Amino acid sequence: MAHIHGIQPSNSSLHKRKLKIVLIMTFIYLVAEVAGGIITQSLALLADAGHMLTDAGGLLLALLAIRYGERKPDRRRTFGYYRAEILAALTNAVVLIVISFFILYEAYQRFLHPPEVATTGMMLVAVTGLLVNSTGILVLRKDSGASLNMKAAYFEVLSDALTSIAVIAAGLIMQLTGWYAVDSVLSAGIGLFILPRTWGLLRASVNVLLEAVPGEIDLVAMRTDLLNINGVCSIHDLHVWSLTSGVNMMSTHLVHHSDADAMQVLRDAQELLEHRYHITHTTIQTEQEGAVLHEKELHP
C-alpha cells in the first residue's frame, strides 16, 4: 500500500492582493451607487447595488477563504483548510440566488407602478460603475481559472460590468421615449442573468462538498486504464474526488496476479494517474489475487 502526497499550494499571495484591490473599488462604488439609486429613483441602480453588495461580500469571503486555506493541517483537520474556499463559493452562490429573486419581486412591483427616474444621474452612475468593473475584470481575468473561488469573484465583476452597460442603455431609452417601465424590465433582466450562472457555481461547489467525481475525470476510462496495467486482474473501491479546486485525489484497491511484481504494479498505476489524469495525491492498496475474497463483505 502506498500513497503520493501532491497537494500544491496556489499562488495565494497574488490572489489576495488582486482581490483586495477589486474589493476596495467595489465597496467605494457600492456606496456611490446606493446614493445614486435613491436620488434618481432608479430600481435598476438599486438592484445592481444589491448585486454589488453580494459581490463585496463574496470578495471578502474569497479573501478569508484564501487566508484559511493557507493554514497548516492539524490533528483534527488533517487535510488542512482547503475546503474553506468551497464553502465561500457556496455561500456566495446562495446569497446571489436570494438577491436575484428579491430583484425579480421588486421589478414586478415597480412595473405595475413605475416611478419617474432621473435618467441623466442614473447614466452617470452607471458609466462610473462600468469603468470600475472593467478595471476589476482586467485585474482578475488572468487568475479566473485558478479556483472556484477566483472564478466566482471574476464572474461577479463581469456580471456587474454587463449590468452597468444595460443600465446605461435603459437610461437612454427612458430619456428618449419616457418609458420608465424599462427600468423594471432591466432589473428583472439583471436577476435572470445572474441566476443560471450562479446555479452553475452552486452545483460545482456542492459537488466538491459531496466528493463527487470531478467533471474532467472519466471514471470508466480510468478503471479500464488501471485494468490494462500489466499484472492487474481486477480493481475495486475506486474513488476519485476533489479536495478543492484543482486538487483531485484518488484511492483504490488493485488486485494483481500471484506472479506479478506488486511494487511494479503500484509504480505503473501511479505513473498512469499522474500523467494521464494529473492526479498526484493517490492512495493505492495492492492485493494478491485471492486475498480480496477474505474482504468480500467489506468491499462489495
Automatic annotation (TrEMBL):
Domain Cation efflux protein transmembrane: 19-210
One function term, GO molecular function aspect: zinc ion transmembrane transporter activity
UniProt entry tagged with the keyword Transport: yes
Highest taxon of the lineage: Bacteria
Keyword line: Ion transport, Membrane, Transmembrane, Transmembrane helix, Transport, Zinc, Zinc transport
Sequence intervals crossing the membrane: 21-43, 49-66, 86-105, 117-140, 152-173, 179-195
Places the protein is found: Membrane
GO cellular component, one term: plasma membrane
Primary subcellular site in the record, as a coarse category: membrane
Boundaries of every Cation efflux protein cytoplasmic domain copy: 215-288
Mode of membrane association: Multi-pass membrane protein
Signal peptide bounds: none
Family per record: Belongs to the cation diffusion facilitator (CDF) transporter (TC 2.A.4) family. SLC30A subfamily.
Name the record gives this protein: Cation transporter
